UniProtKB/TrEMBL annotation:
It is a multi-pass membrane protein. It is found in: Membrane. Belongs to the major facilitator superfamily. Monocarboxylate porter (TC 2.A.1.13) family. This is Major facilitator superfamily (MFS) profile domain-containing protein. Residues 257-484 form the Major facilitator superfamily (MFS) profile domain. The chain crosses the membrane at residues 58-78, 98-116, 121-144, 156-178, 190-212, 218-239, 259-278, 290-311, 323-347, 353-375, 387-409, 421-444. It comes from Saccharomycopsis crataegensis. It comes from the Eukaryota. One of its GO terms (cellular component) is membrane. Keywords: Membrane, Transmembrane, Transmembrane helix. PANTHER family: MONOCARBOXYLATE TRANSPORTER, TRANSPORTER MCH2-RELATED. Coiled coil: none annotated.
């Protein structure tokens, strides 16, 4: 009788949505007896065959591979700027101040992301494949022309602005494709791809230094430029989307999403996370040197930071798939805050800095891989591209100002604790990141209870109004029927 009732509900409530995908709806309360468990409440339970996520396949894993390789060659390669920077300072190449170099690093990290909604629109009118190739072309031009720079303004244009747009373009299309291919293992697929940044950070920081010693800075940049364009070209040929099934939107802006409570909370989580993450990453080497150690010993700290990222991102992806990305983010960033206050501030020796580097590297970059898994939990898969583009604008703005803030908070050079205020700033920002992740988690739990645990990927509950009292009530809810 129960099976007949369920079959009748699923077959009798067929509807046609405005995207042209056939969907079925049902009220979870209509089930007689025991409701389906979390593991059975999949796309098929809801009867949405066209929308069903395959959880892998050859092309799905090719997208993960492309994400890994572009993270390796682009973001990992961008960390080599610290090696070039050391050489520029040593030889006073551009007669510039440390603030100039910090600003250039910030531009490279975030200026392109400020225009992420435009990148999203570009993907819509062209294709993800074209945008990935274009990203490689931007970075090729940035690196190649930087090898001929003689003035600081030229470095601003090349290493700063052009590189920034190239990094943003490569980061816009690929991460949002992966949720189309993975459901159960979504977080681990995303964070496995994002772990390429850590491996690239290690490889490039070691290799570029050797190339500079053998052939000089100019040839190091030219070799890196050809590596970037080659890898991005191959990856642009490997990625595939499921847009014909998902029917995603590519609008540069959606005001209903932008001014919604959960999206604003997510932006606050993202902003504080990036302020802390970038400030910490850019301060690791110099913070070690400030304790009286050599530049080479200081460089090992950032290498260990990247080692932590290689191990940590796939590991936290497994944890995220088990407990949910927002829940995982809450615990991770509260713990990161504790590390800053308990380890970084009182650190006065090399082993402490090394341990701090590897542990903070293990967890701090979780947001970069987890964001494409968090956004569908709020807006669904169809609006993922739009929301992701708007969110990356905040990420970019935070990345631009973080290095300058970190540099401004340093004390005078003679003080062994000159990075105390930097560590306090990072610790407070990590704490606020954990707090806003906790609020977002409470909102999602409250929404699930109101809507009857609908499949979030469908985006049917985007406009649900959740009373603030319910959000506060669920702040410390431990167990929930769906992963958050």
């Amino acid at each position: 009788m129960i099976a007949d009732r369920i079959s009748q509900d699923l077959s009798g409530k067929k509807s046609q949505n405005d995207g042209g995908i056939k969907e079925y709806t049902h009220d979870p309360e209509s089930f007689i007896g025991e409701k389906p468990s979390d593991s059975t409440m999949t796309q098929e339970t809801f009867g949405v065959k066209d929308f069903a996520i395959p959880d892998g396949t050859f092309w799905g894993w090719m997208c993960v591979f492309s994400y890994f390789m572009t993270s390796f060659i682009c973001w990992g390669g961008n960390t080599a700027f610290s090696i070039y920077l050391s050489n520029y300072l040593q030889h006073n190449t551009f007669h510039a101040s440390a603030v100039d170099y910090a600003a250039i690093g910030g531009l490279a990290f975030g200026i392109g992301f400020v225009f992420a909604p435009v990148n999203t629109y570009l993907v819509g009118i062209t294709s993800a494949n074209f945008v990935v190739f274009l990203a490689g072309l931007f970075q090729f031009v940035a690196l190649f022309t930087s090898s001929y720079c003689k003035e600081i303004w030229q470095l601003y244009l090349g290493q700063g602005i052009l590189m920034g747009f190239g990094l943003a373009l490569v980061s816009t299309p690929i991460p949002v494709i992966i949720p189309q291919w993975f459901e159960k293992y979504r977080s681990r697929a995303l964070l496995l791809g994002a772990s390429g940044t850590g491996l690239g950070g290690i490889m490039f920081n070691l290799a570029i230094q050797k190339i500079i010693e053998e052939w000089g800075v100019a040839w190091a940049r030219r070799i890196q430029s050809f590596m970037v364009i080659s890898v991005c070209t191959v990856c642009s040929l490997l990625i595939r989307t499921r847009n014909e099934k998902i029917k995603p939107e590519f609008k540069p802006l959606d005001t209903k999403i932008l001014f919604s409570f959960p999206f604003i909370v997510m932006l606050l989580w993202l902003m504080f996370t990036m302020l802390a993450y970038v400030t910490t990453q850019y301060s690791m080497t110099n913070s070690t040197v400030a304790l009286g150690y050599t530049a080479r010993q200081g460089s090992i700290t950032i290498v260990l930071f990247n080692v932590g990222a290689i191990i940590g991102r796939p590991s936290t992806g497994v944890i995220s798939d088990k407990f949910g990305p927002v829940t995982t983010a809450t615990f991770i960033y509260f713990f990161a805050s504790l590390l800053c206050f308990a380890m970084w501030i009182p650190a006065r020796n090399l082993p402490t800095m090394y341990v701090f580097g590897i542990v903070i590297g293990f967890i701090a970059g979780f947001v970069l891989g987890a964001l494409p898994a968090v956004v569908p939990r709020i807006v669904g898969l169809r609006k993922l591209q739009v929301a992701y583009g708007m969110a990356y604008s905040v990420l970019g703005a935070s990345g631009v100002v973080s290095p300058v803030i970190g540099l401004s908070l340093r004390k005078h050079k003679e003080a062994p604790g000159q990075y105390t205020w930097v560590a306090m700033f990072a610790g407070l920002c990590f704490f606020m990141s954990g707090f806003w992740a906790l609020v977002l988690r409470a909102y999602i739990i409250a929404k699930d209870k109101l809507t009857g645990f609908k499949n979030p990927d469908l985006g049917e509950d985007v406009q649900t109004k959740v009373p603030m009292a319910m959000v506060i009530e669920n702040l410390f809810t431990v167990r929930h029927k769906q992963k958050v």
